[in-house]
Amino acid sequence: MHRRDAIRNVAILLGTAISASTLSALESCTGSAPKNYDLHKPETKALLAEIAETIIPTTSTPGAKAAKVDDFIVVMMNDCYKKSDQEVFLEGLKKIDAASQKQFKKGFMDITPEQRTELLTQIDKERVEYNKRKDKKEGDPTHYFQYLKELTLLGYFTSKEGATQALRYVPVPGKYEGCIPYKKGDKAWAV
């Protein structure tokens, strides 16, 4: 099984909605996509790590930083996404920093975790409105925050930390049990 097939299967098992653009990126994940070296810059990776950690913070389970989601996002963007998608993504990172400057008079890296959450919540509302708009056309680009959220979730829940500590994990599954009672607060299954 190829990694892209495994990722798609995990997403389906988790009930995670993956946008058409992310699914098409997984389908075309051949390693022949144009490499964007801006994604490898230390400041870009640091920004990605902080954004991902804001989306999935460390709680009683490891967060996105511990799962190295920033590395996953860089690999996926470089290996699976078209140049135009990569440009939308990088422009989106600049927009996040600009929005932080406008709202808090500081770059995203310099604001508090509470301010980061507030800012990303506003950007997520903007993403929802962008996706709901009535004048949306077939070839319109995906909202940059869509890529960030989806790749953060995908990277986290397919990582060792996400699959074994945030989800219920059984390294060697036993017998099939078709009906298991759910108790409030139970974790979803990793396999």
From TrEMBL:
InterPro entries xref list: Gluconate_2DH_su3
Pfam families noted in UniProt: Gluconate_2-dh3
Protein name: Gluconate 2-dehydrogenase subunit 3 family protein
Superkingdom to which the source organism belongs: Bacteria
